[in-house]
Amino acid sequence: MSQAKHGKPTSQFPLSSPLGEIFAHNANLWFQTHTELLASVDQLTHAWLTRRREGVEAMREAIQQMTECQDAAEMLGIQQEWLRGDAQGRRRQAAQGEGGRLIAMAGRAVVAPQPMAAW
């Protein structure tokens, strides 16, 4: 630690000065905003991965059933059932606004006006 001419110890990054306090405050706001953004993106990607996993599992089950079919009509019926279930799931997600809500939440964390420290 260095010593100033008047004998008081000084640090390399003093926060006791107004400029240092302003910088630290705004840096903290920046980190807080990015923390909130990443939390929102985490929710969004987790929900997306869960939906993809469910979709792949439903597809796997449909394909398994199709491999055991005796004729094309039975296979077509299984395919149509799978497509209906997939479409219903998409409509339900759209009605709930799940994806849009999470994207909006992530966007708000980025563009929300943050109070800036005055010079």
Describe this entry's structure for a reader.
Helix 1 packs antiparallel against helix 2 and helix 1 runs antiparallel to helix 3. This protein has a domain at 42-111. The mean pLDDT is 77. A two-stranded antiparallel sheet has the order 1-2. The chain has 3 helices and 2 strands, in the order ββααα. A hairpin with a 5-residue loop joins strand 1 (2-3) and strand 2. The protein is mostly helical and 119 residues long. It has helices at 18-67, 72-96, 98-111; strands spanning 2-3, 9-10. It is 75% helix and 3% strand.
- What fraction of residues sit in β-strands? under 5%
Q: Report on the biggest sheet.
A: 2 strands, antiparallel
Shape by Cα distribution: rod-shaped
Distinct helical segment count: 3
- Give the strand line-up of the largest sheet: 1-2
Oligomer designation: single chain
Structural class: mainly alpha
N- to C-terminal distance: 28 Å
Return Rg in Å: 28 Å
What proportion of the residues is helical, as a percent range? over 70%
Query: Ranges with pLDDT <50 over ≥5 residues?
Result: none
* Tally of DSSP β-strands: 2
Average pLDDT figure: 77
Topology as a string of helices (H) and strands (E)? EEHHH
